[in-house]
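Case study 2.
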Amino acid sequence: MEREETGSPAFPGIEANYHREDEASMTLRDYFAAKVIVKIAPSFGEIGELADAGHGVEEILSLAAKYSYEVADAMLAARSA
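Prediction:
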């Protein structure tokens, strides 16, 4: 079930060589989300400007992370379609 939810390890060859089986490593879902957040970060502008407009920094970062994982989930779904 974990494979379906996370897309399996992002770097399985590296994982086999450097991680114990019980250690957590980056999943494909995490990898996709990391790529997304780098692309959407500039659209949020400066954190200070948004905070001055009444948005809390934690709120801004939480929304960015949530959106990144939503896009990652869509990418994983598209791969299995």
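The chain has a mean pLDDT of 77.
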